[in-house]
């Protein structure tokens, strides 16, 4: 089966009280989630990644909560390939007078079989 590629506009939400950051593809239906340590992956009815939720986001990304409240530019890329998942999150935030760019990467084997797919979404 050919890899499914989804390139869409995205939405972002940050809950500073609970330090939870969410990036998701706009206008995608939710079906299920898989938890990987501090990261939760959300899937659509076709078992393609449609969102990523990060718990303890300020610690995970090593950024102050204030910076996460205003993220002017971001891009999420999630790839499922041969039973492994790779998450790349590119953020550009202001910390004081400096612009800080991050690119955390999560690569992990999956226990649930999922179709090979790729999601690219960015600020809508």
Report strand %. Answer: over 45%
Order of helices and strands, N to C? EEEEEHHEEEEE
Average pLDDT value?
89
Give the distance, in angstroms, between the N- and C-terminal Cα atoms: 30 Å
User: How large, in whole angstroms, is the Cα Rg?
Assistant: 14 Å
Uncertain stretches of 5 or more adjacent residues: none
Largest sheet: 10 strands, mixed
Number of domains: 1
Helix content: under 10%
If helices are DSSP runs of H or I spanning 4 or more residues, what is the number of helices?
2
Q: Quick one: overall form?
A: globular
What's the count of strands?
Answer: 10
Task: Characterise the protein shown here.
There is one protein chain. The protein is built from two helices and ten strands; from the N terminus they run E-E-E-E-E-H-H-E-E-E-E-E. The radius of gyration is 14 Å and the shape is globular. A hairpin with a 4-residue loop joins strand 1 (4-15) and strand 2. It is mostly beta strands. It is 8% helix and 59% strand. The mean pLDDT is 89. Strands 1, 2, 3, 4, 5, 6, 7, 8, 9 and 10 form a ten-stranded mixed β-sheet that branches. The protein has one domain (4-123).
Short description:
The chain has 124 residues and is mostly beta strands.
List the helices and strands and how they pair.
Layout: E1 4-15, E2 20-25, E3 32-36, E4 39-43, E5 49-55, H1 57-61, H2 65-69, E6 73-81, E7 84-95, E8 98-102, E9 105-109, E10 117-123
Parallel strand pairs: 1-10
Antiparallel strand pairs: 1-2, 2-5, 3-4, 4-5, 6-7, 6-10, 7-8, 7-9
């Amino acid at each position: 089966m050919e890899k499914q590629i989804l390139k869409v506009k995205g939405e972002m939400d940050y809950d500073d009280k609970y330090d939870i950051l969410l990036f998701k593809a706009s206008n995608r239906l939710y079906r299920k989630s898989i938890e990987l340590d501090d990261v939760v992956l959300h899937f659509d009815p076709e078992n393609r990644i449609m969102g990523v939720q990060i718990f303890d986001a300020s610690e995970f990304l090593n950024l102050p909560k204030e910076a996460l409240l205003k993220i002017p530019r971001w891009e999420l890329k999630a790839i499922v390939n041969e039973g492994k998942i790779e998450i790349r999150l590119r953020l550009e935030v202001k910390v004081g007078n400096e612009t800080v760019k991050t690119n955390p990467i999560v690569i992990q084997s999956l226990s649930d079989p999922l179709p090979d797919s790729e999601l690219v979404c960015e600020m809508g």
